[in-house]
Write a structure and sequence with these properties.
2 domains; 55% helix
């Protein structure tokens, strides 16, 4: 079975919607696109615009044989909800047949994080003798200092920087704008990268004059650095130093939040810095901050 012409157009329009209007990361948009593509292929010539709730439930029953993890199934249901919400907004359906789907309760796993020593070990093992190496050190310094998402860092333009005040404006999930703070150390690396190293990264390609829309981090051909490259950089370093952890860019974000809370930061402040819509998303970091709790106990209890 294949897609009819209406379904193909709906799928491409939906892709533009989640990337541009919803500002989904490339990773999330790719997953949602694949989910809906599989759904539309299953529908075949029937198309998606005349579907009712029972038909959507039939599809979920169809894919149940694959025994997806609860997290994967929850995402597929979220994809369907978002897809039909978009079609309903565009008046291509009379209602959202996926609106009342019930998602499986996802297990809440504690986020994995790096100790301060592990972060420094990673940073100190970056080869900074090349322009790309210095750029990579700057990137990881920023992730560690700010807690920003790797997609937010990749999307940074010069107009987002306010280095005089150690501030950077980022656009997170749902195109929500927020201001993040960076340390003096991270700022120094960033200023050196901008003033000296950036033109050397793409030395064989003439770079256009910098303006507010110019990407801060570029590859060797002068184009915006993609998140995949940043992940590869981390993987190479971790493999080199044989760190017994699977380290991702997002782990720097978890580490940032964990260490702030361990050192007494207010939960609401951490929520604001991370750009969490709900405080419940931030509260998970309190469960892994027992080190600070034990320290306070030992310092304050008279019998400790």
């Amino acid at each position: 079975m294949g897609l009819n012409s209406n379904s193909k157009q709906d799928l491409e329009d939906f892709k533009s919607y989640i990337l541009v209007e919803k500002n989904f990361s490339e990773h999330t948009a790719k997953a949602y696109y694949a989910d809906i593509l599989a759904y539309l292929i299953w529908l075949g010539d029937e198309g998606c615009e005349g579907v009712n709730f029972a038909k959507v439930r039939e599809y979920l029953h169809h894919i149940s044989v694959y025994n997806y993890k609860k997290t994967t199934l929850a995402r597929k249901i979220a994809s369907l909800r978002t897809f039909y919400k978009y079609l309903h907004r565009e008046k291509k359906t009379e209602n959202n047949p996926a609106e009342n789907l019930i998602s499986p309760k996802r297990p809440r796993s504690l986020p994995k994080f790096l100790t301060t020593d592990e972060v420094e070990q990673i940073l100190n093992n970056i080869n900074m003798e090349t322009p790309a190496g210095y750029r990579n050190r700057t990137i990881l310094e920023l992730l560690w200092a700010s807690g920003m998402r790797v997609s937010e860092l990749s999307n940074l333009n010069f107009g987002n920087l306010n280095l005089e005040n150690n501030e950077i404006t980022v656009f997170g999930k749902g195109a929500k704008e927020r201001i993040i703070l960076i340390t003096d150390r991270a700022k120094t690396y960033l200023q050196n990268y901008i003033n000296t190293v950036r033109p050397m990264v793409a030395k064989d390609y003439p770079l256009p004059p910098v303006n507010d829309e110019s990407p801060v981090f570029i590859n060797k051909t002068g184009y915006r650095l993609q998140t995949k490259t940043i992940r590869n950089v981390i993987n190479e370093i971790v493999e080199k130093i044989e760190l017994p952890k699977h380290v991702t860019p997002h782990m720097f974000r978890h580490s940032f939040a964990t260490h702030l809370i361990e050192n007494g930061a207010d939960l609401r402040v951490v929520q604001e810095l991370l750009g969490h819509a709900s405080i419940s998303n931030t509260q998970i970091y309190t469960h892994i901050s027992t080190q600070h709790m034990k320290q306070v106990y030992d310092e304050t209890h008279p019998r400790a």
